[in-house]
Write a structure and sequence with these properties.
mainly beta, three-stranded mixed β-sheet, three-stranded antiparallel β-sheet, 6 strands, elongated
């Protein structure tokens, strides 16, 4: 389990570079908990999803990877005046 505390004495400092992603949603690749400004943020491998701007992702991007989109979004209706299938 990954445990982090940014202000703990002797805590290893990681030079984490956020992963490049076409999406702004990331999924945890490890389970653990981190304390950010006195608030504990637990995260579970494969379950916890966060937006790029969330404090948990900003503090520990090394514990997350971009989500995989299996099905894209397709238009369900035609543009006004357009027939579907054109």
């Amino acid at each position: 389990m990954a445990l982090t505390k940014k202000d703990a004495p002797g805590a290893p400092q990681r030079a984490a570079k956020p992963k490049e992603s076409p999406t702004d949603i990331f999924v945890a690749i490890e389970s653990g908990v981190t304390n950010i400004d006195g608030v504990d943020y637990p995260f579970n491998k494969g379950l916890t999803r966060v937006h790029r701007g969330h404090p948990l992702y900003r503090a520990c991007p090394e514990f997350f990877e971009p989500i995989t989109v299996h099905y894209g979004v397709e238009a369900t209706t035609a543009i006004p005046g357009e027939q579907r299938g054109e």
